[in-house]
Design goal:
The structure is a single chain. The chain has helices at about 35-40, 90-95; strands at about 5-10, 15-25, 30, 45-50, 55-70, 70-80, 90, 100, 105-110. It is mostly beta strands and about 120 residues long. A hairpin with a 5-residue loop joins strand 4 (about 45-50) and strand 5. The longest helix is centred in the first third of the chain and has 6 residues, at about 35-40. The strands form two sheets. Strands 1, 2, 3, 4, 5, 6 and 7 form a seven-stranded mixed beta sheet that branches. The protein has a two-stranded antiparallel ribbon with strand order 8-9. It has one domain (about 5-105): Acid Proteases (Cathepsin D, subunit A, domain 1, Beta Barrel).
């Protein structure tokens, strides 16, 4: 499996932060490291359970941020990471931006949009 990173500008109520995300086609929501979401002033809106790749279940707080990638920008739900959590770019953010991750060449491409 290849590893792909993308740089993004993430904005919150009290600022913005450049974040290097690992593109994770298996992650539902994007995750912001604790230092980043605290710096831009995000506050928890709810809590959700997530299952990790090893089957472990964890509870994480959820908020919303504005994410700008080279391919576009959008509001998106984000998991508020804890100590040592890495920034992940999940599929909900990609779908909000109309993007899809190609795992064969590890690139982002415009989604084929259906209106029906």
């Amino acid at each position: 499996m290849g590893i792909t990173y993308i740089d993004a500008l993430v904005k919150g109520p009290s600022g913005e932060e450049n974040v290097r995300f690992l593109v994770d086609g298996g992650a539902t929501y994007s995750l912001l490291p604790k230092m980043a979401w605290e710096k831009i002033g995000l506050v928890p809106k709810r809590e959700m359970s997530f299952t990790l790749a090893d089957g472990t279940t964890v509870e994480r707080l959820i908020s919303e941020a504005f994410v700008s990638l080279p391919q576009g920008e959008s509001h998106t739900p984000v998991v508020l990471g804890e100590e040592n959590d890495q920034a992940l770019l999940g599929v909900v953010t990609l779908e909000n931006l109309g993007l899809v991750f190609n795992p064969f060449d590890r690139t982002l491409h415009p989604m084929r949009m259906m209106l029906c």
